[in-house]
Amino acid sequence: MRNVLKAACLALTIPAMSPAVADDSVTTFTLDNGLEAIVIEDRRAPVVVHMLWYDVGAADEPLGKSGIAHFLEHLLFKGTDDMEAGEFSRTVEAQGGTDNAFTSQDYTGYFQRVASDRLGLMMKMEADRMRDIILTEDEVATERQVILEERAQRTDSSPNALFGEMRTAAQYLNHPYGIPIIGWRHEMEGLTREDALAFYRTYYAPNNATLIVAGDVTPEEVRALAEEHYGPLEPTIDLPERTRPSEPPQISARHLEMADERVSNPYVLRTYLAPERDAGDQAEAAALTILAEVLGGSSATSLMGRVLEQEESVALYTSAFYDGVQLDDTTFGLLVMPTPGRSLEEAEADIDRMIDSILENGIDAAQLDRIKTQVRAAEIYGRDSLQGRARTYGVAVTSGLTVQDVADWPRALEAVTEDDILAAARRLFDPARSVTGYLSKPAPATSEADQ
Amino acid sequence: MIRLILALFALMMPLKAMAAVDIQVVTSPGGITAWLVEERSIPFVAMDIRFNGGANEDAPEKRGATYLMMGLLEEGAGERNNQEYAEAAEALATVIEFDANSDTVSVSLQFLTENRDASVNLLRDALLDPTFDPVAVERVREQVLAGLAADARDPEEIAGKTLAGLAFPGHPYGTPIEGSPETVAALSIDDLRQAHARALTRDRVVVGVTGDISAEELGPLLDHLLGDLPTFDGVPVGRADYRLGGGITVVDFPSPQSVVLFGHEGIAFDDPDYFPAALLNQVLGGGGFASRLMTEVREKRGLTYGIGTYLASNDLAEQFLGQFSSSNDKTAEAIALVREEWARMAAEGMTEAELDTAKTYMTGAYPLRFDGNSRIASILAGMQTLGLSPDYIATRNDRVDAVTLDDIKRVAARLLRSDDLHFVVVGQPNDLESGSF
Question: What is the CA radius of gyration of chain B?
Answer without folding.
Answer: 24
